[in-house]
Amino acid sequence: xxLFALTIFLSAALLxxxxxxxxxxLLPYLGGGAAVWTACMLFFQAMLLAGYxxxxxxxxxxxxxxxxxxxxxxxxxxxxxxxxxYQPDVSAFSTQPPLLAVLLFLLFTTGLPYFLxxxxxxxxxxxxxxxxxxxxxxxxxxxxxxxxxxGLLAYPFLLEPGLLLSEQRLYWVSGFxxxxxxxxxxxxxxxxxxxxxxxAGAARLRQPGAVRWLLLSASGVVLLLAVTQQLTQxxxxxPFLWVVPLCLxxxxxxxxxxxxxxxxxxxxxxxxxxxxVFGLLLFYMxxxxxxxxxxxxxxxxxxxxxxxxxxxLARLKPEPxxxxxxxxxxxxxxxxxxxxxxxxxxLWFTQQWEFLLVLLAIYLLLWPVGPGTRRWxxxxxxxxxxxxxxxxxxxxxxxxxxxxxxxxxxxxSLSVRDIxxxxxxxxxxxxxxxxxxxxxxxxxxxxxAQSYYRTGTGAALALEYFLPAVLTRSAQQLQQRKxxxxxxxxxxxxxxxxxxxxxxxYELNPAxxxxxxxxxxxxxxxxxxxxxxxxxxxxxLQAQLESGSQQFDVLVxxxxxxxxxxxxxxxxxxxxxxxQHLHSDGVLAVxxxxxxxxxxxLLRNQAASRGLQAYFIATPAQGTDPAAHWVLxxxxxRFIQQPQVQQALSRWLTPxxxxxxxxxxxxxxxxxxx
Length: 674
What we know:
Blueprint: H1 2-26, H2 35-61, H3 64-86, H4 98-131, H5 138-162, H6 165-190, H7 210-232, H8 239-258, H9 265-285, H10 291-315, H11 323-348, H12 354-365, H13 375-396, E1 401-409, E2 412-421, E3 424-431, E4 434-440, H14 458-465, H15 475-478, E5 482-486, E6 502-507, H16 510-519, H17 522-525, E7 529-534, H18 537-545, E8 552-557, H19 572-581, E9 582-591, H20 600-609, E10 613-619, E11 628-634, H21 637-640, H22 643-648
Parallel strand pairs: 5-6, 5-8, 6-7, 8-9
Antiparallel strand pairs: 1-2, 2-3, 3-4, 9-11, 10-11
């Protein structure tokens, strides 16, 4: 019996340990966006479904000895495939569309091992029920979720802080070898005692409750992914913010399957109804809350919803003989939920409406039915759904605002809105919940940069007043400045281009390029020659280096997605790449305005490591323009000593922390949280 427990615990831990590890490996190659995690979850849910389907078919159609032979063969093949995981090559898939690139990379590197780990839970529970007829196999399901929880928690608190990515992969590969040995030993020891006719229940998939199992499982996964998306659209998508929601998701399974009496339907319904109110506030006014408040409220929404979905699943579970079909339907629901978030939601919605819709769906799945239900109870429940819907419509409608354009893709959701400000129309680009540029529609204000890019901000000063450290260039060369700009937004920084200047924008999201070109006039009005390179800035700069340095005078780093910045653009290796493309007297301007992160200490340390000086420019909020914080890295004293720049220099808001430094192999976002 102990070998069953050890094998199922180890398989679950490995199953969930690899998820944040591989997702973090993928982030730099796909722009560091939050959608990388949801795309990974689509693969993991699909492989979980495939594993459960394999387990169900194996137990239903093959004798125990035939099961042993086939599963042993697949385990040996998985062991032979482990070198693909130990030395993965992400760049081989970088030319594919981002979602397809994620799926192909994961399938190629970890497909067979993950498939077998996914099948382990229902397989071992089925075999356990045949060997120990008086014991409940559902306790092993709770144990597997405890193993999953342990694997998830081990990553952000043990593996990520203390090990390089290459070392993390080595430890995982070693763990899989131990798991395979345990599983092989278990099969060759226990399966011979099972009766040849022992099969999984054949009719369980056609039970009346099957559709309800499917919907409850799908709703739990949609809620998990929607909450994670909401959390990581304003903070960089790090494993910690992936792991915490997933831990609560698993914890709800552990509680309801291990201790059924912990699921008190009335209590969790009450908490979930309260959470629906919090969900509305977070969706429309989330930026008004600090990070800790957002985290706690989102997690309350998630946990209460998952306790209801999974509590109902536990209450409706079948007899042990039908458990493989039951788990198959649960996995199918999870895969459908993941497909809905990754494929259907971006096609159907321009905003992340799935977050609000899944709250309403869970509420309706708990519709009061059965003996003793009164009509007034059903009427009250219906009125709650109507009130929630009307609240969404009321919050969505805002006087004085016109929606011009909206689009959603793998990289996030964009909208263009016209807003009346004191009788003057201003157009804004909204990425997620954050304004990424604004422009007045009427001249002469339409020719002036607004928001974080207005006159006097750090980037504006660098572009307007850049001068080489020593006047060794000719007058013609001085009029042919070259600027690199990582992140396009509405294109506001193009207003600082002068005749003879060249401005090269690097933009990952094709939707941003479309919006800036078609709905804002900054690019077309610029006096400079404007070029746009579509793709991740770091990958594009690395590729361009093969044909020589770009020789930028100023490089502006402003690659935000909503209110977060991709970590791979702020590592020591990234800084080295930037300075290979900058003149030795150039200026690197980094936008650090952020509600939740303090990146100034990180940049000061990176400047020091390269022998550069770092300068902080904080422009206070004025009217509708927000406060803008920029850090300039340079040794060009001739530029810095200009009166316009000297007057803008500010004192650092926080002391330097020498321990904060990021590399491609190791970065810890917790170090820079405000």
